[in-house]
Design goal:
By secondary structure, this protein is an alpha+beta fold. The protein has 24 helices and 25 strands.
Length: 707
């Protein structure tokens, strides 16, 4: 290698390092932008921001959010001022979780609905009278002009004011948008109609329908009012759709704790708002309460329902040294937790933020729509002018020239190109969040069209995610129904997931007294005059010998991955109850539908082979891979790709590495999954991954991964 080539390589490396350093120095800012009405508006704001030095911006019209990567020396106020000079309003995005923000889209929908209702009520008689007076002059009566004017003016002024206001603002900033097109079309139709009814109408009698239509006066009140009504209706339904998409996030955020009981240094407790909790503070969580932050258990033992975060129906036992996740629920026992991540740093907040960022991103189809919308309005005005010029050169009268140009404007007014695309993408991610499907960006949504293999997780995806009784075994001298009734009587006083399943299996059961829960072991109570103990086999059996029937039932159930509890009456074992996560009723049909479309299905789970095979057989999946931990699942996906199973739909795209551990992003049909190596290289791969989970890593110490 020559010296010059070495210097070239070194220079390239330095340039690359410099670029990487510059990228690392950038900080991300999100701005709420108001006043945008179409894709052309978002494109204008984006161009305005990108003209600033040291700024890279992407503006999403659907969410009204500008995502900006800027150098540290660029202030947020400078970005907001630049947007205001472009004719829009902006302010830094609040750090509150979506559920804590006001539903601005719903308020805007109500604002539009009031105007829409008034416009629709007046539009019906206006359209009838306007057409009748224009086509059949003999129906006109004294003062008919004023009747039309009285019906039209509230619609084209007050009801259409949202469009006129934006159009005037755009005019002050020498810009155009979809509102400009609507305002000009409505105003032109109204002004020309006023001129016609007061000054330019003629009373001619036609001999036929065609002659009446061709010779009618140019009264276009119904056109102006109709455009207003239909565009208002479109904007109203758009705002409603956005509100519903956001409601999924608000419902998700509502699962978080609102208050937390903090343990003070002197041992006393104090209840404070959850957002005031600080790192390393200790807080108390009692049965039925939601854990307020991610942390480590320092005292106590309890079963924790983690289904909100992991989809696993079976509770996880938390003991001193165990990690817990904010948003999960303590079922029994009392925990003292030291907060390790609070507020926006928790995994729960990260999951909510993931959906928000997915909605804020732009899909390729949306970028294309924005590019078209940015030149759409000027092109429409140009085409309208050319149309008018063409008819004028052809010798047409003023009425015909105006009508032709107006037709171009009116037909283009309700164009949904710049509105429907971002709304559809946002509603898709919002509806997905409502169904437990979390998308890491719209590229994941676009990538599934090329999927040829779908890999399913078991728990919460093919199964219900809720435990149910699968078998009851009784020893000689006992009936299964009696064993289940006694177990349900005691478990009815417990909030444990296994207890809920047993109680649901026997809703008719006797009452229990002297109930006591033994953390980590089971429950005991008095039913009638007998003491009933139900829980872990070793604890329930005590020192008594286990009958062969119960031992065999336990081995068989546990080989299928089911949970078994023993029931003892007066210290004598009388039965065993097996509890498992039942297969979803719709799972087999969904798998069959995928097979009909030529897709290959695979079951990939951390459960034991027997349980995985049983579920696979129940739903119709032949390829089952079991006993795979979360990290191993990523490796299995990579091996499948290497063998060409996913080569046709595997894609890679550059993305910014997150500073927080990526939470669950779930596709029950296909999911974007980021592996550790992918996060290190700041890239992600779209794969057909179902309800995957990563082993969370704390900033202080690692925690054990969940299955």
């Amino acid at each position: 290698m020559t010296a010059s080539s070495v210097s070239t390589v070194v220079g390239s490396a330095e340039d690359t390092a410099g670029a990487a350093t510059a990228a690392d120095d950038l900080r991300r800012v999100q701005l709420d932008v108001t006043g945008m009405s179409c894709g052309a508006c978002s494109a204008r704001v984006e161009r305005t921001l990108n003209k600033m030095p040291g700024v890279r911006a992407s503006v999403n019209f659907g969410t009204r959010v500008a995502t900006v990567d800027v150098l540290p020396e660029v202030a947020d106020s400078d970005l907001c001022d630049a947007i205001r000079k472009a004719g829009y309003e902006a302010e830094p995005r609040s750090g509150a979780i979506t559920g804590d923000r006001d539903d601005e889209d719903l308020s805007h929908a109500h604002y539009l609905l009031r105007r829409l209702l008034v416009a629709a009520v007046l539009f019906v008689p206006l359209a009838d009278l306007s057409v009748m007076f224009a086509v059949v002059p003999s129906t006109r009566f004294a003062g008919w002009q004023w009747v039309l004017t009285a019906l039209a003016l509230p619609v084209v002024t007050w009801a259409a004011w949202p469009f006129h206001r934006v159009a005037l603002r755009n005019a002050r900033n020498r810009a155009v948008s979809m509102e400009t097109l609507i305002s000009v079309g409505v105003s032109a139709a109204t002004i020309w109609s006023l001129y016609t009814v007061f000054f330019g109408h003629h009373a001619t009698e036609a001999t036929g329908i065609w002659q009446a239509l061709v010779g009618s006066d140019a009264i276009y009140f119904e056109v102006a009012a109709g455009v207003t009504v239909f565009v208002l209706a479109g904007r109203y339904f758009e705002a409603r759709a956005k509100s519903k998409a956001g409601s999924a996030l608000r419902a998700l955020a509502a699962l978080s704790a609102k208050n937390v009981t903090v343990l003070l240094a002197d041992g006393t407790e104090m209840v404070i708002p959850a957002e005031e909790l600080a790192e390393q503070q200790k807080f108390v969580v009692r049965p039925g309460q939601t854990i307020a932050a991610d942390g480590l258990v320092v005292e106590g033992s309890a079963a924790v329902d983690t289904s909100v975060m992991t989809g696993e129906a079976k509770p996880v036992r938390a003991t001193p040294g165990s990690s817990v996740i904010g948003g999960t629920i303590v079922l029994d026992g009392r925990l003292i937790v030291e907060a390790a991540a609070v507020g926006a740093d928790t995994q729960f907040a990260g999951m909510v933020r993931l959906v928000e960022e997915a909605q804020a991103q732009k899909a390729e189809s949306q970028r294309l729509a924005d590019r078209i919308a940015s030149v759409f309005v000027p092109c429409v005005f140009g085409i309208a002018a050319l149309t008018a010029l063409g008819w004028a050169l052809a010798g047409a009268g003023p009425d015909k020239v105006f009508a032709s140009a107006l037709a171009v404007l009116v037909i283009a007014c309700p164009c949904a190109l710049g509105l429907a695309t971002p709304t559809a993408m946002m509603v898709a991610s919002g509806r997905g969040a409502q169904l437990g499907i979390f998308l890491k960006g719209h590229r994941s949504l676009e990538a599934i069209r090329a999927v040829d293999t779908v890999v399913f997780d078991k728990t919460g995806t093919l199964t219900t995610g809720h435990l149910a009784v699968t078998a009851v075994t009784a020893v000689d001298g006992w009936e299964s129904d009696d064993v289940l009734a006694l177990a349900a009587a005691v478990e009815s006083a417990s909030e444990h997931a296994v207890a809920v399943a047993i109680t649901a299996a026997a809703p008719e059961h006797p009452d229990v007294s002297d109930f006591q829960a033994v953390p980590g072991r089971g429950v005991v109570g008095t039913v009638g005059e007998r003491e009933v103990r139900i829980g872990k086999p070793s604890w329930a059996a005590g020192r008594a010998a286990v009958p062969a029937a119960l031992a065999e039932a336990r081995r068989s159930a546990e080989s299928r991955g089911e949970t078994v509890v023993f029931v003892a009456v007066d210290d004598q074992l009388c039965g065993a109850v097996a509890v498992a996560d039942a297969v979803r009723e719709s799972a087999a049909g969904a798998i069959a539908a995928l097979h009909e479309r030529g897709l290959k299905t695979i079951l990939l789970t951390g459960d034991n082979p027997a349980a995985a095979a049983a579920v696979g057989a129940a739903v119709g999946i032949d390829d089952v891979i079991a006993d795979v931990l979360p990290d191993g699942k990523v490796d299995v996906i990579q091996q499948l790709r290497d063998r060409g199973r996913m080569s046709r739909w595997s894609v890679t795209a550059s993305t910014t590495a997150r500073r927080w551990p990526a939470p669950i992003w779930v596709w029950r049909s296909a999911v974007a999954r980021t592996s550790r190596s992918a996060r290190r290289t700041s890239s992600w791969s779209a794969t057909a991954w179902i309800r995957c989970r990563r082993p969370w890593t704390w900033r202080r110490r690692p925690c054990a991964p969940s299955r």
